[in-house]
Specification:
Chain lengths: 252, 272
Amino acid sequence: MSDLNLGDHISHRFNEELESIRSKVMTMGGLVEKQVQDGLTALIDNNRELAELVAASDVKVNGLEVEIDEECTRILAKRQPTASDLRLVVSIIKTITDLERIGDEAEKLGRYTLSLNDQGLRSRHYSQLQHLGDHVTRMLRDSLNSFAHMDAEAALHTIASDKKINAEFESISRNLITHMMEDPREIANALRVTWCARALERIGDHSKNICEYVVFFVKGKDVRHVTLNEAAESVDIDISGDAAEAIEDGDK
Amino acid sequence: MAEKPDMHQALGETVGDIFVDNPKMSTRNTNVFYGEKQAIHNVSLDFGKNSVVALIGPSGCGKSTFLRCLNRMNDTIPICRVEGDLKLDDEDIYAKDMDPVLLRARVGMVFQKPNPFPKSIYDNVAYGARLHGLARTRAELDEIVVSSLQRAGLFEEVKDRLQSPGTGLSGGQQQRLCIARTIAVSPEVILMDEPASALDPIATAIIEELIDELRSKYTIAIVTHSMQQAARVSQRTAYFHMGRLVEVGETNQIFTNPQHELTENYITGRFG
């Protein structure tokens, strides 16, 4: 279900301007998603070439961030948007910051892979990372989809999945700590794997933020810093399944 | 937006809270007819003390007609008929014993085009005070003229030429002169019908600043075509469409998250 209604302005140019920033955000989202996937693949497959590519690939993303920011500033100055138009521009300004940071985290995956590779290390914790990475990439994709369709309900469901990612990250951390205690020679390696897991977990957090901006755009309600339950109630959306589990845990 | 009222509900009941605590003016079920044609349908709205209510809407939506009901300016139009309860401090302003001239001293009005009398600056401001016998001595009249010009933010610019004609001032100054003339008779409510639409941005900013200052003393209702102006100067905003009050709410809410589709379409510049 789409709540987007950008094309009905009396001013055609305004329609085009809003459509332009929106489609650029989608492009940026696509680039970032690819970057995260490549970062993960490079890490798991110990693919040096791909890791180098990822580590140096955020130039485009950064460029888009600046470009979209400038366009938003121009729209604010020239059009003085109100109501849903204003919420769209504000959501986009915030979304691109999170996308850019997701790009940074992906870049880190590339760099950690290179440094693990430099030392000829290969961790046995990769399978756990693969699992976490799959969850995170799915969450990122879901959040970008909810943005593309401006679907508040999908966004809330996606927010709920952050809880699982956080739990998985905690479990990996505990696991790695145990390994470090058992075998201090593993510490350097285990730390790098922890950092990778941390980067993935952060990507989950940024994806969650993007979903919160989607809810803000569609419903006009700020659902940051409240429990999922409160968020769902304030925007009058019934969430079940995954979301309900997170509610029981009192997830923030 | 999906959760917003349907278009066919569009012209039904007003969305939002028409009430305020302790209103200065209140209207209930106001209907206005020009001959056979009904221009205002069942509008109920409160005006709070020390606050600015902006009335917005497309041309012909009835916002000016409604504003003019509030001090019986529509009485001057023979075919115009007003129905409903319209009250100023619980007094029925359409009661038989209500003198419209006295009412208009209590509920003053500022128009779109500055309309100073072809008299001196001093006499423009003194006119109402003389008419209503508000000053017993020349000194008292001087005091009223000076303080009104000061409150209208015009005194410093005209203090050396109070005897020059009011029509010799710039547009923005003339409008402030008209505001000074309005407040010289100590009104309780000030109605403004697009007070800045004929002014440049600087003069507009000065008038808007003035409105914000006047709010501490008066109840203000302003009709404006400039959405940004409504957003800047008012605490509550009322959106009119085809003679009906579609939505009213806190200005902050109306401009960020209006509840009615028609309001949304209007303030975002969409085809309704």
